[in-house]
Every structure is written in C-alpha cells, then in structure tokens.
Amino acid sequence: MAERKVEATRNAVNDSAAFIQRLKPDSGIAEPVYRQLQRQIIQMIQAGELGEGDSLPSERMLAEALRLSRTTIRRCYDELREQDFISTHGRAGVIVKSPPRINPEIGKLKGFTEEMREIGVQPSTQLLERRIVCDRTIASIFNRPSTARFLKLVRLRLGDGVPMTREVAWYDLTLASALADWDVVGSVYQFLQQHCGVILADGEQTIEAAMSNAEEMAAFGFAEPSPCLLLKRKTYATTGQMVEYVEGTFRGDAYTYRITLKMNPHMPAQP
C-alpha cells in the first residue's frame, strides 16, 4: 500500500503542471527563493517522489510558470547540478539523478573500503580532520586512563564519488602506536594487522535513526536536516582489548543495510 502511494505521488509529480504546483517559493522570508526551490526539489528526490531519469521543466518554462526570473531558476538548477542531484542532456532537458543506493550485508566485521569493493562500488575518502587527542569521554568508552592518547579521524567516505557517510573514529594508540604515523591511505584494518600486529576479532555495532546535523548537511549537500542512519561500533582485538570506536552517519537516501535471517533449527516452523 505504501509503495503504491509513493508511486502515485511520483506519477503526479512527474507531470510538469503537478510538479510546478508543488513548488511554493515565498519572497516574504529571508531564505533566497532559489534556495527554497532547491530545498523543495531535494525533498522530493529524497522522498522518492522524483526518481532517477525523471525530467524537470526547462529553466524558461519553470521561470514563466512561477513568475520568477530565469536567473533565479538557473541558480537553483546550478546548485542542484553541483550537488549531483540533476544533470542536463541537450534536448533531453533536465534529468533527475538519484544517489546510488548501497545495500551491504550486515553481520560481518569489515571497513568501508572493503564493504564498497565487495558490492562493486569504488571507495574514496576525504580526510576532514586528523589529530592525536586526549579525551576523557572517549577514554572512558575504551576503559583507559584519562591521559590515554587516541588517534581521532574525521572522514567523508564516498562510493563512486557520492558522499555516503561522515565518520568520526578513535583508535587506541596504547595498543596500536604505529597508527600515530599512518598516512590515512587504504584500509585501517589492514594497517592494524600488517603494521601494528593487531588481529581483529569482533565488534559490537548499534544502528539508530538520526537527523543530519549542520556538519553532515554540508558533507552530504542537504539543504535541510534529513533522515540518516547513525552507526556506533566498538571493535576488539583477539586479546579482548578495544581498538576502535566509530560513530558514522550514513545518508538515509542512499544506504540500506541487508540482514540475512536464518530459521532456528531447534524451533518448528510456524505458519
């Protein structure tokens, strides 16, 4: 039922007249009109009302219909193109581009790089922050003294060039001192094993719903707070010591976790 409702809404939005009626610019508020339009179109894309390959009205048609200048519409479309939400294809006009939806299987301990490669997506990383820190809160999570040193990394992780997650991670330098000189290239899990002699055993991970904050909105190109998945993970070595703590915010419009459920062999099947 929900899928049919979304499909019906999408069919309506794909009609130019219906799409234009959904746009409600208000010149009486402080937010620029082009940004209001940009925000409203992004909301339609994230809600599934506009999908990959759908057409949008031309700059001239939209400007005339909304009684706005073409400069305003052009700026709106330019911003959407820069954020990779639309593209222009000559006579085909303005086409919606949805971010690729990633659906890795949950239940295996692996890093972002390995996860993306397994599903045929090219991973890349933008390093936003790298510091050696002492943090009482983080030390308590690791059950370490308040004077313990940690490598803190803030990274934007991308799949096929599309921002997927903003990740904040801490690593215990008491256990993996070589990380202090790591150039943050490649998989941290491989570095831990090959250069620190740390063999990972398992991890504990939680997943919860969250709205993107200002930093995440900037990273993902969101015009306003949007639904995300917040993952928190504690990773342990074979010695039982905690090596890593990660908080990763995944964009909700492009990331779906897949879980394989198996029947309990000791429980009879129920209809």
**Poorly predicted regions:** 1-12
Helix percentage = 25-40%
What is the N-to-C order of secondary-structure elements (H for helix, E for strand)?
HHHEHHEEHEHEEHEHEE
Strand portion: 25-35%
Q: Taking all residues together, what is the mean pLDDT?
A: 82
Task: Kindly provide the radius of gyration, computed on alpha-carbon positions and rounded to a whole number of angstroms.
Answer: 23 Å
Summed up, the helix count is 9
- Which overall shape is indicated by the principal axes computed on the Cα atoms? elongated
Number of strands: 9
Q: What structural class should be given to the helix and strand makeup? A: alpha+beta
Main sheet overview: 6 strands, antiparallel
Widest sheet: strand ordering: 4-5-6-9-8-7
- Gap between N and C termini: 23 Å
Can you describe this structure?
The chain has helices at about 1-15, 15-20, 35-45, 60-65, 70-80, 110-120, 135-140, 190-195, 215-220; strands at about 55, 85-90, 95, 125-135, 150-160, 160-170, 200-210, 225-235, 240-250. It has about 270 residues and is α+β, with helices and mostly antiparallel strands. The strands form two sheets. Strands 4-5-6-9-8-7 form a six-stranded antiparallel beta sheet. It has a three-stranded antiparallel beta sheet with strand order 1-3-2. A hairpin with a 4-residue loop joins strand 8 (about 225-235) and strand 9. The two termini are about 25 Å apart. Residues about 1-10 have low confidence and may be disordered.
Topology record:
Elements: H1 2-14, H2 16-22, H3 33-46, E1 55-56, H4 59-66, H5 70-82, E2 86-88, E3 94-96, H6 112-118, E4 123-133, H7 136-142, E5 150-159, E6 162-172, H8 188-196, E7 200-211, H9 214-220, E8 227-237, E9 242-251
Antiparallel strand pairs: 1-3, 2-3, 4-5, 5-6, 6-9, 7-8, 8-9
Helix pairs in contact: 3-5, 4-5
